[in-house]
Amino acid sequence: MFGDSSYGILYINKDFSELSIIVYEHIESGRDNASYSWHPEAGLLISGPAKSRKEALNISNELIGDLLKPLE
Questions:
Q1: Which residues form the domain of 16?
Q2: Domain count, the chain
Q3: pTM of this prediction?
């Protein structure tokens, strides 16, 4: 957490050898709060360890089981 905002969501496997981070996009700031969003089609996602985009996407698809469709 950074102040009153969240950076994103961390997904990690049981032996801590792979991870994915969904990075929230800042939408708007209000007086008392801020709004954040993430979309599978255009959102920032950090995954590893991976040597290619395809490997990173495979890790993300394995770890993030609640997405509506697999990332490609």
A1: 8-63
A2: 1
A3: 0.72
In a domain, 29, yes or no: yes
**What one-character DSSP code corresponds to residue 14?**
T
Interior angle at CA 52, CA 10 and CA 12, nearest 5:
20
pLDDT in tens, 6-59: 788 999 999 999 999 999 887 766 666 767 777 777 888 899 999 998 999 889
In a domain, 71, yes or no: no
Contact 27, 11 (CB under 8 A): no
> What is the Cα–Cα distance from 46 to 7, expressed in whole angstroms?
12
* Residue 50 falls inside a structural domain: yes
Q: Is 66 left (phi over 0), alpha (psi -120 to 50) or beta?
A: alpha
